[in-house]
Design goal:
Organism: Corchorus olitorius
Helix content: over 70%
Number of helices: 17
Number of strands: 0
CATH architecture of the largest domain: Up-down Bundle
Subcellular location: Cell membrane
Radius of gyration: 22 Å
InterPro entries: MFS_trans_sf (IPR036259), MOT2/MFSD5 (IPR008509)
GO molecular function, one term: molybdate ion transmembrane transporter activity
Protein name: Molybdate-anion transporter
C-alpha cells in the first residue's frame, strides 16, 4: 500500500505541472511591470506569513501532549483559540479598518510571535494565553492582509481583473507550496535534527519577523472608514446593517461559513477516517498530498478567473456539489466495503478510496479560496471590509467550537454527513447569489431590447 501514496502524490504532481506548463496567452492576464512588482512583494510577505502559520499546525497537539496534558485539556486549549478568534477577531477587524490595515498586519506578526514564545512554557495558563493570542492572530491573517491588498490595488489604479491573479497565486504558493515545504522543514527540525517539538514554533517566529520587516519597509498604510466620530459599536452596527440590507453580502457570509466550517471539521476527521483500526499511515506525507491537491485546485482557479466566462458565481456551484459528494465517501464505503477487524497494519482498501475523495475535496478547497476572495472584493464595501470579513467568521468559530466539544459524541459518519449537507446547502445559496448578481444585467438587457429589438444579451 505504500506504493499507493507515491502513486497519488506523483499523479497530482504531474497534473499540476502539466496545468502550469500548458498555460497559453489566453490563460494568462497581461499586466504591467508596476503591478508585477506590487504583486510579487505581496506574495513574498503572504508566503512568509503562511509559513509562520503552517509550521505550527502539525505540532501544536503533539507539543501539548509532550507537556503531559490529556485530550480534554488539549481540547480546551483548542476551543480557547477558536473562541478568542470569535470574541476578539471582530474587534481587531474593526480596528484594522479604522487604525490602518498595514498596522493590523504588523500586529498579526507581533501577536503570533508572542504566541510562539509561550510554547516554551509547560504551564497551562501560559499556554492558554498563547492560544488566545493565536486566535486573535488568525483573525488578522484572514482579514487584514486581504483588506490591505484590495484597498492598495484599487488605490494604485490597477485593473480589477488583476486582483484574481494575485489571489490565485497567493493560494497556490501560500496554501500549497509553502504548506508542503513548511511540513518538510518542520519534520527536518523535529526528527532529523532532534531539536524538539518547540523548534517549529521558533522557526515560525523567525519567518514572521522577516515578513514584518518587509511590511514596515515597503508597505504604505490604507484605511477603511476613517470617520473620527465612529466608535467600535458604530462600526459593528454599520457592518451588521450592510450584511442585513444587502442579500449578496449575507449570502456570501453564509456560503463562507458553511464551507470553512466543513473544511475545519474535515481537519479533525481525516486521520480517524483513514485509520479507524489504528492503521499506520504517513500523516506528514498525506498532509503534503492534500496540499498538492489544493495547489491543483488553485491552478485550475487561476485559469477560470483569467476568463470572463464562466463567472465565478457560476462555477462555484459545481465546486460545492463536488466537495459535498467527496465527503460522502466515508459513509458510502462504510456501507459498501466490509470493515476490517484487524488492528494496525497498512491503510485498508476503503481508506484508499477515501483518500482519493479527500484529495478531491482539497482540490475544491484550492478553487474555493481565490474564488471567494474574488467575490468578497466585488461585494463587500471597502469602508468596513475587515469588520464584515470577521463577522463572517463568528458562526464559523461557534460551529468549530461545538464540533470540538462534541467530537466524541457522534460517529464519524454522522460528522461527514453533516459536512456534506452543509456543502450542498452552500451550492444552493451560491445559485441564489448568482441569480441576484445577474438581475441588473437582465434588467439592462430588457431596457435595451425595448429600444433595440435586435439587441443581444450583455456579457461580462
Amino acid at each position: 500500500m505504500e506504493l499507493f501514496y507515491f502513486m497519488v502524490f506523483g499523479a497530482l504532481g504531474a497534473v499540476v505541472a502539466a496545468l502550469e506548463l500548458s498555460k497559453n496567452s489566453k490563460d494568462r492576464i497581461n499586466t504591467s511591470p508596476a503591478f508585477n512588482s506590487f504583486k510579487n512583494n505581496y506574495l513574498v510577505v503572504y508566503s512568509l506569513m503562511m509559513a509562520g502559520d503552517w509550521l505550527q499546525g502539525p505540532y501544536v497537539y503533539y507539543l501539548y501532549s509532550t507537556y503531559g496534558f490529556g485530550k480534554g485539556e488539549i481540547g480546551q486549549l483548542f476551543i480557547a483559540g477558536f473562541g478568542s478568534s470569535m470574541l476578539f477577531g471582530t474587534i481587531v477587524g474593526s480596528l484594522a479598518d479604522k487604525q490602518g490595515r498595514r498596522r493590523a498586519c504588523v500586529t498579526y506578526c507581533i501577536t503570533y510571535i508572542l504566541s510562539c514564545i509561550t510554547k516554551h512554557s509547560p504551564q497551562y495558563k501560559i499556554l492558554m494565553v498563547g492560544r488566545v493570542l493565536g486566535g486573535i492572530a488568525t483573525s488578522l491573517l484572514f482579514s487584514a492582509f486581504e483588506s490591505w491588498l484590495v484597498a492598495e490595488h484599487n488605490k494604485r489604479g490597477f485593473d480589477q481583473q488583476w486582483l484574481s491573479l494575485t489571489f490565485s497565486k497567493a493560494i497556490f504558493l501560500g496554501n500549497g507550496l509553502v504548506a508542503i515545504l513548511s511540513g518538510l522543514f518542520g519534520n527536518l527540525l523535529v526528527d532529523s535534527f532532534s531539536l524538539g517539538p518547540v523548534a517549529p514554533f521558533d522557526a515560525a517566529a523567525c519567518f514572521l519577523a522577516i515578513g514584518m520587516a518587509i511590511i514596515l519597509s515597503s508597505w504604505t498604510e490604507n484605511f477603511g472608514d476613517t470617520s473620527e466620530n465612529k466608535d467600535l459599536l458604530t462600526q459593528f452596527r454599520g457592518a451588521a446593517v450592510a450584511i442585513a440590507s444587502d442579500e449578496k453580502i449575507a449570502l456570501l457570509g453564509a456560503i463562507q461559513s458553511l464551507f470553512e466550517g466543513s473544511m475545519y471539521t474535515f481537519v479533525f476527521l481525516w486521520t480517524p477516517a483513514l485509520s479507524p483500526n489504528d492503521e499506520e499511515i504517513p500523516h506528514g506525507f498525506i498532509f503534503a498530498t492534500f496540499m498538492l491537491a489544493s495547489m491543483l485546485g488553485s491552478s485550475l482557479a487561476s485559469r477560470l478567473l483569467a476568463h470572463s466566462t464562466p463567472r465565478v458565481e457560476s462555477y462555484m456551484q459545481i465546486v460545492f456539489v463536488v466537495s459535498s459528494a467527496s465527503l460522502l465517501l466515508p459513509i458510502i464505503t462504510n456501507f459498501l466495503v466490509a470493515p476490517s477487524k484487524v488492528k494496525g497494519g497498512s491503510i485498508s482498501f476503503a481508506g484508499c478510496l477515501q483518500l482519493l475523495g479527500f484529495c478531491t475535496f482539497e482540490a475544491c478547497v484550492g478553487i474555493f479560496w481565490p474564488s471567494i476572495m474574488k467575490m468578497r472584493s466585488q461585494y463587500i464595501p471597502e469602508e468596513a471590509r475587515s469588520t464584515i470579513m470577521n463577522f463572517f467568521r463568528i458562526p464559523l468559530n461557534i460551529f468549530v467550537c461545538i464540533v470540538l466539544y462534541n467530537v466524541d459524541a457522534f460517529p464519524i459518519t454522522v460528522m461527514f454527513g453533516m459536512c456534506s449537507i452543509f456543502l450542498f446547502v452552500a451550492s444552493i445559496l451560491q445559485r441564489r447569489l448568482m441569480a441576484i448578481s445577474e438581475k441588473p444585467k437582465i434588467e439592462n438587457w430588457t431596457a435595451l431590447k425595448e429600444r433595440d429589438p435586435e439587441a443581444e444579451p450583455l456579457n461580462d
